[in-house]
Amino acid sequence: MTAIETKVIKLNWDENDITSELHEHIKENPLRLKWGIHTNVEQHLPKKGIVKEKGFAAKLPRIDLRLVTINSSLEYEYHMEAKNLKEKDSGLKRRYIDTGINSFVSKKYKSGCLLGYVLEGNLISTVDGVNKLLKKDEREPEFLRIKSHHFHKTYFESNHPYDFLIKHFMFDFTSLNSA
């Protein structure tokens, strides 16, 4: 059963609350064990050149959700950064760009994707609003474009300098009752 079907997620939750709930659903999915995937939330990411003295760990970058699989002697990590979005909230859309898209473009986050949690309004209009902000920043080539994906119906991709592609999985929670 999906997080949307259980209707446990509330529209007033912080993005970390939603990610925590999605993490529980991933852990309960039998395919996770079949595929040998380990998962955790709020994973510290290593940062070269940081002075390791009292309090250094609090300054490390963190990714919202991490999936890991180990195959033979290889370990593969996949990072997911989550952001709340609302159609009429340009501050949340700006944050999606500044601390989401830009964190992947700058290589702060390596392999992975963005998760957009749409909490108010229309999903497509919300994505259009993100694209309007990218246009304002003169970044039209980096627009989010809808694509087909076999695991998720509201999937977008954006192309960035140096042939860098970001995957965007949008979750429409607007049908849930707020609490």
Structure report:
This protein is α/β, with parallel strands linked by helices. It has one domain (3-172). Helices cover 30% and strands 32% of the residues. It contains five helices and seven strands, in the order H-H-H-E-E-E-H-E-H-E-E-E. The protein has helices at 3-6, 15-28, 30-34, 90-105, 123-136; strands at 37-44, 62-71, 74-86, 112-120, 145-147, 155-160, 164-172. It has a seven-stranded mixed sheet, sandwiched between helices. Strand 6 (155-160) and strand 7 (164-172) form a beta hairpin. Helix 4 packs across helix 5. The chain is globular and about 45 Å long.
Report the span from N to C terminus: 21 Å
Give the radius of gyration: 17 Å
Name the helicity range: 25-40%
Number of strands: 7
Reported for the largest beta sheet, the result is: 7 strands, mixed
Shape: globular
Low-confidence stretches: none
- Total domains, how many? 1
Number of continuous helical runs: 5
Beta-strand content = 25-35%
Strands side by side in the biggest sheet: 1-2-3-4-7-6-5
Overall mean confidence score, pLDDT: 90
Q: What sequence of helices (H) and strands (E) makes up the elements?
A: HHHEEEHEHEEE
- Could you say which structural class the secondary elements and strand pairing correspond to? alpha/beta
